[in-house]
Amino acid sequence: MALRRIFTDRESALHKVCKTVTNFDQKLHQLLDDMKDTLLDANGVGLAAPQVGILRRVVVVDTGDEILELVNPELIETSGEQVGVEGCLSVPGKYGIVKRPMVAKVKAQDRNGNWFEAEGEELIARCFCHELDHLDGIVYTQVMDRFLTEEEMEEM
Ligand code: NI
Q1: Rounded to whole angstroms, how far apart are CA atoms 21 and 32?
Q2: N or C: which end of the chain has fewer CB within 10 A?
Q3: Which pLDDT value is given to residue 85?
Q4: Does the annotation mark 131 as catalytic?
Q5: Which residues of the chain have pLDDT under 70?
Q6: pTM for the full model?
Q7: DSSP assignments along 30-79, one per residue
Q8: Residue 144, burial from CB neighbour count under 10 angstroms (0-12, 13-18, 19+)
Q9: 3-state class (DSSP) for residue 98
Q10: pLDDT of res. 155
Q11: In this structure, are residues 112 and 63 in contact, taking their beta carbons and an 8 Å threshold?
């Protein structure tokens, strides 16, 4: 088990457009394994490679049943709308109100380069959108309506 340091949004890695993965090699597998360990250790729902300082299009998402590995993910379908609270491991101690689709479908490659599709609702749809934004250098604070107030955070 290897944990990686989680970068904050004050660091430039969080604001860069990530590159497509072309080598499905041991280095990618190690990155995915480390990202899964790091996500579980941090009690997060999703983690994108730039959050551990790697500017590649790689995301892991904990659906509750399994941890999805999404390499070169693309949003292919969305429907509905939800307005809710969102946080980010790279923005510790803060939460914001963000509008996202209610359902989101992505296509992605697995660690061996095979394409597959995954659909998520509610929290998972929110997570897909949030993590894919990270790959384009977008942090939720750039697309949110506003931060939660301290009073609202106490109520949570
Ligand atoms: Ni995030």
Answers
A1: 12
A2: C
A3: 96
A4: yes
A5: none
A6: 0.97
A7: HHHHHHHHHHHHHT-SEEEGGGGT--BSEEEEE-SS-EEEEEEEEEEEEE
A8: middle
A9: strand
A10: 87
A11: no
- Check 66, 131, 150, 155 and give the catalytic one: 131
Residue 41, both tokens? 């250790």
Give CA 114 to chain center in angstroms: 20
CA of 84 to the centre of ligand 1 (A): 15
Q: How crowded is residue 91: how many other Cβ atoms within 10 Å of its Cβ?
A: 18
Q: How far is the CA of 123 from the centre of ligand 1 (A)?
A: 13
Q: 49 is written with which tokens?
A: 């490679």
How many alpha carbons fall within 13 Å on the CB side of residue 58? 26
CA–CA separation, 154 and 149 (whole Å): 9
What Å distances lie between residue 116 and 36, 50, 73, 120, CA to CA?
19, 22, 10, 14
CA of 138 to the centre of ligand 1 (A): 9
Question: Ligand 1 centroid to 24 CA: how many Å?
Answer: 24
Q: How far apart are CA 97 and CA 23, in angstroms?
A: 37
